[in-house]
Design goal:
Shape: elongated
CATH superfamily of the domain at 66-190: Tetratricopeptide repeat domain
Distance between the termini: 83 Å
Low-confidence stretches: 1-20, 62-69
Order of helices and strands: HHHHHHHHHHHHHHHHH
Number of helices: 17
Strand content: under 5%
CATH class of the domain at 66-190: Mainly Alpha
Mean pLDDT: 86
CATH architecture of the domain at 66-190: Alpha Horseshoe
Number of strands: 0
């Protein structure tokens, strides 16, 4: 409680009647209990002091030891997270694996273990190795639920699990996980506006978008955007990811001009932060390219899709799902341009990756297969 140095406060107790239930009587009762306790332990005070000295002698070196032992972990986790933001996934993976080796023998209650497991899951998700990401994401959720249920780690681990399920095309499952994350947040975190909470809403909006629940998707994404802009600023990177999502929702609703504005806003933010070469920029460009293709602006569509493909091929291996996504988009563009041969080539390349890494029933795989059938039926 803050001190109050006003004259009236200094003498407040002088004005309280001397009754059993008064504040001064309660203070006297507490003081008497303390004095009685001190009298009781006085014969043992010397021994207590010696024990206290021994405990301090043990605790301080132990704390120093733990701090020194943790330094390599914190140095590596910081570097890894910095690499991850730059799209340098191979370098980030090396740092996170080093951290994992540091933490494997630690208790599951140690938050460092949950953090590095989560980061490894996100690395493998970001590089398209979804099956490899699954056990890390699952273990992070289990640890968070058991040891950090009242903290943000739990709903955020669920949010990351939802993101992975979205990538795998398991949209209804992702929706359930995101809704659970929101309930956990509401019950335990009880913070109505937060950038992390906004990420949960944005992920839920993606799940809803892909299931065709467009009005609810838009409402959830707008809620996310409002929070992101409040917490991080209108032109923040946090806002860019929601703007891209809103662009795709608007596109599905047929609001093409609004969709274009969202995509352009996201692209400006990401370009300003990262320059031309970054996975987030490539994602915006792919979205713009697909929009322009849908409205018949084929020249502009080609420019954006080729830029997106070049960046994705720079950052990822040839079999990355986002590379396949851009190749598939270029194949669809080839069909609209009447270029049968290039359409078949691009769609075949995309379909091979998608069938292997996403599975034959993933929505992206099915879309590419449908486009390939259409390309094959074109006249030579």
């Amino acid at each position: 409680m803050p001190e109050n140095n006003s004259p009236s406060a200094n003498h407040a107790t002088d004005l309280v009647p001397e009754t059993t239930g008064s504040l001064s009587a309660k203070f006297r009762a507490v003081k008497q209990r303390v004095q009685a306790y001190q009298a009781k332990i006085r014969p043992y005070q010397d021994k207590i002091n010696k024990i206290r000295i021994v405990l301090y002698a043990i605790a301080i070196p132990w704390a120093i030891f733990i701090a020194i032992k943790s330094l390599p972990y914190y140095a590596a986790i910081g570097k890894g997270e910095s690499y991850f933001k730059q799209g340098l996934y191979n370098e980030a993976e090396k740092e996170f694996l080093f951290c994992y080796e540091q933490c494997k023998t630690e208790n599951a209650k140690d938050p460092r273990l949950a953090r590095v497991l989560n980061n490894l899951g996100m690395i493998y998700r970001g590089t398209g190795r979804y099956r490899l990401a699954e056990p890390y994401v699952k273990e992070t959720v289990e640890i968070a639920e058991k040891h950090f249920q009242k903290k943000q780690e739990y709903p955020m681990s669920l949010s990351n699990q939802g993101a992975l399920l979205n990538d795998e095309g398991r949209y209804s499952e992702a929706e359930e996980v995101y809704r659970k994350a929101l309930l956990v947040w509401k019950d335990n975190i009880k913070k109505e506006s937060d950038s992390k909470l906004a990420s949960i809403y944005n992920g839920l909006a993606r799940s809803l978008r892909e299931q065709g629940k467009l009005d609810e998707a838009e409402a959830q994404a707008q809620k996310a955007l409002s929070m992101k802009e409040k917490e991080s600023g209108k032109n923040s990177l946090d806002a860019a990811s929601v703007l891209e999502n809103l662009g795709k929702i608007a596109q599905k609703k047929g609001a093409f001009e609004q969709s274009q504005r969202y995509f352009e806003s996201a692209l400006i933010i990401d370009r300003t932060a990262f320059g031309e070469k970054h996975p987030d920029v490539a994602s915006d460009q792919c979205g713009m390219g697909r929009l322009y293709m849908q409205v018949g602006k084929l020249k502009e569509a080609r420019t954006f899709l080729e830029q997106s493909l070049a960046t994705r091929q720079h950052f990822f291996k040839a079999d990355h799902p986002t590379v396949a996504r851009t190749l598939s988009s270029l194949g669809e563009l080839n069909i609209k341009e009447g270029d049968r041969q290039n359409a078949i080539t691009n769609l075949n390349l995309a379909l091979k990756t998608q069938s292997q890494f996403l599975g034959p029933q993933h929505p992206d795989t099915l879309e590419t297969a449908k486009a390939l059938t259409k390309a094959m039926s074109m006249q030579k």
